[in-house]
Amino acid sequence: MTQPSVTIVGAGIVGLTCAYKLQQQGFAVTIVDREGPCAGASFGNAAHMAIASIFPQSVPGIAGQSWRMLRDRRGPLIANPAYVLQHLPWFLKFLRLGNADAAARGTHVMSQLLSRAWEHWNPVLRDIGATHLVRQTGALHVFGSRQAMQNSHGAYLKRQQLGVECRVLGVEEAREMEPALTEHIAGAVHIPAMGHVTDTRQLCQALADRVTANGGRLLHQQVTAIRNDGVQTTEAFLPSSQVVLAAGAWSARFARELGVGVPVVSERGYHVRLPKNASTLRTPVLLVENKVALTPMQDGLRMASVAEFTHPDAAPYHDRAAFVFQGLERWVSGVDATPETRWVGPRPSTPDSRPIIGRSPAMPNVLLAYGHGHLGLSLGGLTGSLIAELATGQAPSIDLSWLSPTRRLGKTGTPV
């Protein structure tokens, strides 16, 4: 009997977990990526296992919030006007979903996905010998004002109702848990279910090494076309029984020919890395009002932020992004050190903040696994499991209609 084959387009965290899971199911695996493992957002993300990120980006009041942030030249939201006009339908859909019904439905879906994140990651981490790269010790959401903390009470209550434990801490409790926090904070919320990765590149490399050690191929080639029977690159045609598109923000260029109805745009994030001795921070922190995530990594402290809507390959806007990382030493000691490195990379974002997971309606041998936005790392393990179920003809372990590539969203966020 001929061994089934699969070509995965994309060597980020989602593509690599798909490759790992499919290889476990007996597929001969080829991964193709123009740059190799972990070259994009899989490397540069905040490295949080964001179990508490159950709310969609579009919520009631998002239009006003976005306008205020865009007017703030030191704020975390940046938009290239030409890019926005080019992708205007995406932004109109995004704004239309900013209502209570759509937000509630989206929150339900994302809580269902994120509640399964660890159960699909932990066996993988143990098998590839990468448990030392992940800390499951929780995270702190830190507030600079009592008013902001009070305004967020409902969001944490909703998380609690959906099974995400949230413990409110006063200033002294928060500083006892994380001494790098300063006396200027107003309080914090501890979320035990969260965690973080201490080296995103090593995690991706461990997955790639396991796949290649078991006979998989990893090709550094540019994909030019996807067909129902394989993948065309600049160097060769790679025939395969099935194809998985997991190329993050670059997946959108193949959407039309694959019959995908959900638009995806490039939402670039930025990070700076501070020296290892710059701060004693040992707990992942989200500065809620600043919208900056701070993560203790093996090579120093990573500070990540910014949502920049522009072409994924556009020139970096580091000078503008740098404003977002200024003044944070008021809340966390030592973070005013000079960064050693800077990074920018695109997230693949959908209007409803949900990934696209399913079969291509135009090419049934092509499976889609992209559009994870800020949650590619968190949902990588689950996505790999779902793609393996689809590829082997098993009934999906969750309802995939909410993630369908052909979903069309009404104002309530319901597939129609």
UniProtKB/TrEMBL annotation:
Matches recorded under Pfam families: DAO (PF01266)
Keyword Oxidoreductase belongs to the record: yes
Domain of life (superkingdom): Bacteria
UniProt GO cellular component terms: cytoplasm
GO molecular function, a single term: oxidoreductase activity
Keywords: Oxidoreductase
Domain FAD dependent oxidoreductase: 6-390
Membrane-crossing segments per the record: none
UniProt name for this protein: D-amino-acid dehydrogenase
